[in-house]
Predict the 3D structure of the following.
Amino acid sequence: MNPRIESLEKMLNGPRDGALLRFSLGNEYLKAGDPGKAGKCFQEAVDRDSHYSAAWKALGKALAEAGDNPRALAAYEQGITVAESKGDIQAAKEMTVFAKRIRKTISA
């Protein structure tokens, strides 16, 4: 197993566990080519901090890579709302583009 993933997993359910740890672990799983596990981590990140726009964006990406376009679209739509409410305009723009692509895929 990836040593970075092992290191992050050892911190789960400890004093440092939180949205950032789950987000970081999700990113490592994405890099390792496991969007299913990545999506679970990103979902746990947004469950812990629903205002974490980067985690919403990553959740949408992981779900899309796993082939779950409807849930990816829902994640991006929620992420856009969160990002706009925080003034995170760049993240909102990026997720808008990704959501538009998924809508086209779904309707095709």
The chain has a mean pLDDT of 97. Residues 3-107 form a domain with the Serine Threonine Protein Phosphatase 5, Tetratricopeptide repeat fold (CATH 1.25.40.10). The chain has six helices and no strands. Helices lie at 3-11, 19-31, 35-48, 53-65, 69-86, 89-107.
